[in-house]
Design a protein that fits this description.
This protein is mainly alpha-helical. It has a domain of about 70 residues. The protein contains 6 helices and 2 strands. The protein is globular and about 30 Å long. The relative contact order is 0.14.
């Protein structure tokens, strides 16, 4: 059975996400040389770099698990606080990986689907 090390996984995920280019790209309009404006849809698609990092770390820590270890929750809570990630954003990200807040808090065993 593979031993999980949440802090090492988190550190690796943060390092990997920091190596990707998260700066928004502005394009020049060829005819006028003006910067292209972004629509509301474009802005909704943009994600804060710290939120993207949090998402990457969360994914690496939750993938393949059925129950979240206390140490994993501590790592995510610290990262959330350090980067001003709201509880709502946290819950939305959980949902992207098929988790509910109840699953995450351990009120439900994901593998069995029964209340503990």
């Amino acid at each position: 059975m593979e031993e999980r090390h949440p802090q090492k996984q988190a550190q690796a995920a943060v390092t990997a996400s920091m190596q990707t280019d998260t700066k928004p790209k502005l394009e020049r309009m060829p005819s006028k040389g003006l910067l292209k404006t972004f629509s509301a849809d474009d802005l909704r698609k943009e994600i804060r770099p710290e939120l993207e990092t949090y998402k990457t770390v969360m994914k690496s820590l939750l993938l393949g698990t059925h129950k979240v270890a206390v140490e994993t929750k501590k790592v995510l809570k610290k990262l959330r606080g350090d980067n001003n990630i709201s509880e709502r954003e946290h819950d939305q990200l959980l949902g992207q990986f098929g988790w509910t807040p109840e699953d995450y808090e351990g009120e439900l065993d994901k593998s069995a689907g029964n209340l503990l």
